[in-house]
Amino acid sequence: MTQHTEQRSEVLVVGAGPVGLVMASELTRHGTHCRIVDKAPSPASTSRALAIFPRTLEVFENIGVVEAVLRAGHKLYGFNIYAESRLLAHLGIDELESPYPFVIILPQSETERILLTHLAQMRVSVERPVELLSHVRWYGKYHRVFVPKYRRRVIYGQLRRRIGPLLWERCQQQGMEWVAGHAMPNHVPLCLSIPPQ
Ligand SMILES: Cc1cc2nc3c(=O)[nH]c(=O)nc-3n(C[C@H](O)[C@H](O)[C@H](O)COP(=O)(O)OP(=O)(O)OC[C@H]3O[C@@H](n4cnc5c(N)ncnc54)[C@H](O)[C@@H]3O)c2cc1C
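Structure tokens for the assembled complex are given below, as produced in the milestone run.
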């Protein structure tokens, strides 16, 4: 960690993917000093997300990177969907009421490079490889529904009596807490809780 960030960082941004880079750019633009870390030793070199939609371009304008993105990418004004040479549908992006009525096709690695350059101009750099090991705690509650094949109404009698204990035992094995559940004839709605990790 540099002296600069150590003294002045108010926000820690974890992860230098598109979300973290945009977050760091916006925090910096609004006068909040942030430190951005990523566990990967270098930025991703793969394409992954290719399409940047009009609303994102509008946000990029606010950030100050839209010109660089427009220069680097290719404009796409619409999509045609074909099946065996027959046009099934046309989706026209150029009809949208936006200063950017098109989609920009740009590999994600290039978008990240532009955001990194922009951050560097504001004297913010990503510290690598730095992994956040604490503070990653979450407590999740999940709704799950078990459904018999074809949603047949088969949960009666002995099966109805056995299914609860069976599912409860399975939850215990998986370290999940059974919050609620009820056997219905054609489904079993469950609310399960997974302890903080
Ligand atoms: C193979 C592949 C193909 C894809 N194709 C498309 C596509 O065609 N179109 C599309 O829209 N989307 C696609 N995506 C999804 C797109 O890449 C993601 O939506 C996007 O990367 C999410 O951005 P993000 O910033 O939230 O997360 P990420 O890009 O995943 O960035 C998260 C970063 O956080 C870092 N990190 C994680 N945990 C820690 C920690 N504890 N400490 C420090 N650093 C940490 C990671 O190293 C990583 O760099 C694809 C994804 C993959 C993997």
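The chain has three domains: 1-50+109-136, 51-106, 140-194. Residues 1-5 have pLDDT under 50 and may be disordered. Further analysis is deferred to the final report.
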